[in-house]
Amino acid sequence: MRVIRDAAVALALVLGAMSSMAAEACSNRGDLDANYCDENKDLVADTPKDAKRLKSPNTIVFTYTPVEDPAVYEKIFKPFTDHLAQCMAKRVVFYQVQSNAAEIEAMRSGRLHVGGFSTGPTAFAVNIAGAIPFAVKGTEKEFQGYNLILIVKKSSAFQNMADLKGKRVAHTAPSSNSGHMAPMALFPKLGLAPGKDYNILFSGKHDQSVMGVNSGDYDAAAVASDVFERMAERGQIKADDFRIIYRSPKFPTSSFAYAHDLEPSFRDKMLKCFYDYRFTPEMQKAFAGADRFVPVSFQKDWQVVRDVSEAGGQKFNRAAYDAEEAKAKKQ
Fold it and tell me: Do residues 229 and 289 make contact, with C-beta atoms less than 8 angstroms apart?
């Protein structure tokens, strides 16, 4: 209830601000909300032309996608947030969010300046909240990615996707790429249509889907491979207790994105602080060996995600987001 209330308050503030502010003239918006413009057609919101709308916050609010317990990630990111505070000579606070919806609304309302978004919600954050993806965790060689995997218990009789027709299959949340949108787009081509061959059961989070299969609450679950692997590394599950019966092509993992209305010199200094930082051994362990923030482009590196969206008839606009979140709340 608290998350829903926070999101509602944030949305009310945004709508009030929009009604009192004349929209800037714009020749192209694409899929962006009416409050944003994309005249250079790079698929993300342009920096506002009105200098009065630019922000150089004294306190930088940072968060990370709530794929697991937010408190865990606040501790993991503590060395970096300390670095960012020193690098920017600003106070930095970690804002714990409990859902993708709350994170997106926090940036849209101006309460969140920079943070990590899961792959699917990244596209919603771009269009709905004016988020600008700029980095993905990775190494000197490449940025990290993940696969959509379909897992079952190793002790079960399920050997292939056809065996799951009529069974209990978990998805995570409507806005999740690997946990919902990718299965919706990719599974039908493999002979298993979500919502037709099985009823979709939303678990809420990837770790809850994995634990649900482990406990027998679900026969199978569509989850992100990196979350599954981290859970195994931490001893939360035994990987050998599961069978992976499908693995997709690689997707980019969670993005780091800043609010579109940050003042350019402030923004550029902050990005340098990100790019120059090298992860501590503890962070590298938590993030599968990643040791830095690797630059990315939403237009180029999220193309595969948009392709999945189009294949499934899904758009990353406000109407689609509201419709999917409404479905999740009814369950």
Answer: no
Which amino acid does the sequence have at 92? Answer: V
Contact 209, 218 (CB under 8 A): yes
74's tokens: 């606040």
Q: Containing H/E element for 78?
A: helix 78-88
Strands 59-63 and 114-117: parallel
Largest CA distance in the chain: 62
How confident is the model over 47-76, as pLDDT tens digits? 999 999 999 999 999 999 986 677 889 999
**Fold topology of 2-143+253-330:** D-Maltodextrin-Binding Protein; domain 2 (3.40.190)
Q: Where are the domains of the chain?
A: 2-143+253-330, 148-248
Enter the pTM of the model. Answer: 0.69
Residue 24: what pLDDT?
59
At residue 32, φ and ψ (nearest 5 deg) are -70, 150
Q: Tell me the pLDDT tens digit for each residue of 187-242.
A: 998 999 999 999 999 999 999 999 999 999 999 999 999 899 999 999 999 999 99
CATH class (in words) of the domain with range 148-248: alpha beta
Query: What is the Cβ-side half-sphere exposure of residue 129, based on CA atoms within 13 angstroms?
Result: 32
Pull the structure tokens for residue 46.
């342009």
For residue 125, give the nearest of 140, 108, 110 by alpha carbon. 108
Angle at which helices 225-233 and 206-215 cross, to 10° = 70
| DSSP strands (E only) in 96-179 | 114-117, 131-138, 145-146, 148-153, 169-171
Calculate the alpha carbon distances from 56 to 35, 49, 90, 107 in Å. 20, 15, 10, 15
Tell me how crowded residue 232 is: count the other CB atoms within 10 A of its CB. 16
Structure tokens at 310: 């189009």
pLDDT score at 311: 74
Task: Assess whether the region 2-143+253-330 and the region 148-248 belong to the same CATH fold.
Answer: yes
User: Rounded CA gap, 149 and 221, in Å?
Assistant: 8
Q: Which neighbouring-strand residues pair with 223?
A: 149
Confidence at residue 4, expressed as pLDDT on a 0 to 100 scale:
42
